[in-house]
Amino acid sequence: xxxxxxxxxxxxxxxxxxxxxxxxxxxxxxxxxxxxxxxxxxxxxxxxxxxxxxxxxxxxxxxxxxxxxxxxxxxxxxxxxxxxxxxxxxxxxxxxxxxxxxxxxxxxxxxxxxxxxxxxxxxxxxxxxxxxxxxxxxxxxxxxxxxxxxxxxxxxxxxxxxxxxxxxxxxxxxxxxxxxxxxxxxxxxxxxxxxxxxxxxxxxxxxxxxxxxxxxxxxxxxxxxxxxxxxxxxxxxxxxxxxxxxxxxxxxxxxxxxxxxxxxxxxxxxxxxxxxxxxxxxxxxxxxxxxxxxxxxxxxxx
Length: 302
Prior knowledge:
Elements: E1 19-21, E2 37-43, H1 50-58, E3 65-71, H2 78-84, E4 91-94, H3 100-110, E5 115-118, E6 123-125, H4 129-140, E7 144-152, E8 158-162, E9 181-183, H5 184-190, H6 201-211, E10 216-227, H7 231-234, H8 236-249, H9 254-276, H10 280-289, E11 295-296
């Protein structure tokens, strides 16, 4: 693994012919009670889902938002949909990238907010998500803010609500990245997303932040929603191996790392088998009572 890039390494993107900026939407307020919040959405051939994502950002109860969309050169109607709503979008960049990390990093360079959130083009925020995050930032200051994530089997059937806990980050991804908002100063200190990682770049960043002593703040509320079936869900074994590599690179115990990897793989295999034969009840019981990250029934939603 190489070291992650810095913000300065992305200066050239402002000269891209596919860069659209609407200055009137960027209110870099100096009022501590009304900070500018940047939100980044990356997309690629997301015509079926991106409208819901865009709407969830533009309809936030908190209004001082710089909204940035980075599209990797979609060949479907994604770009057309984005441009139909460009009056509500601060920056649009449409060009090929080197992967998810590169797209994230382009958005981070263009972000002017005190706080930065990243929501992918098939996820969506609760309408008051940013308001809750800003209130915590006003109370606690700079840090990494994260909350509950509602998973959905499809658009009509809720799955589980995943909580988050940063104290278990050394063991695995125990924070819901779609719910995180990070003070920009932290990216300036520890670098951006690692370009060598294809699936677990969010875990790598959060682990580096934890090891660097950055402060984490948990918001006990559903912040974001996610449909099952993302890159990490569908390639879970490769994701586990990438997480294993990240922990090794950051100097964690190799013996403990092997034990965590083995345990994670076995538990996932057992879960898949049980769910495939219709035994959801024991899976649900384990998730509620023994999972590293607390999970609750969607009926207990807060």
